[in-house]
Design goal:
Shape: globular
Strand content: 15-25%
Oligomer: single chain
CATH architecture: 3-Layer(aba) Sandwich
Structural class: alpha/beta
Number of domains: 1
Amino acid sequence: MSESKKGFIEVVNFHKSFGAKKIHSGVSFYVRKGECLGLIGGSGTGKSVLLRSLVGLEKPDQGQILIDGVDIARMRERELNEIRKKVAYAFQGGALFDSMSVYENLAYPLREHFNLNEKEIAEKIREQLAEFGLAGSEHLLPGNISGGMQKRVGLARAMMMHPEVVLYDEPTAGLDPYNTKRIQESILALKAKGVTSILVTHDMPTVYAVCDKVALLQHGKIGEQYTIEKLKEAPDSGAMSQFINGESA
């Protein structure tokens, strides 16, 4: 498979409704390989719906979702399982198994998808925990660690299969400045390895810290889109500026 002319991820004319409620009415954007796109917008604009669609958890009513040049929008579940090895979803709350230790949470995707012995699994988990600043937390349960650590464990688990794409759903929501900085550092480290990513967030300092460009989801479409450099230079007007400044748009 090869990247399309525009990007490694490409969403084209995406439409989605739930019953009579129309969420998206022609969303289009792309993300080049190794880029991080910040996807911002008000509550209820369907940012998380888009993320879920990129791993096949939602199906568009119309439009295409291209990952590495392949349209996943009409794939069957078995085909999507292969895509999900490439695309990791970092859920907002970490989505850890409460009854499993940190070690068992990280071991789960390895045991599900790879034919590894326990020694190989242990080595991979040790390396991953060290990389995310979580060494020594192997035997702890999610309920016994902080919210910031839970999010980092969730991100570490998402990366266990070395995906090419990571989708972040509000990874810094509710975190103190220290843990926010740790999440930012993790995202930047993954970018340095060539990982392509989409960051859904209301945290504009994190957008400025880790993203290459930012898109505003508004009224069912992408309203405005800027590179971070252009956003910093943009005049203090327009829909994105109004959103960032907390004004009605």
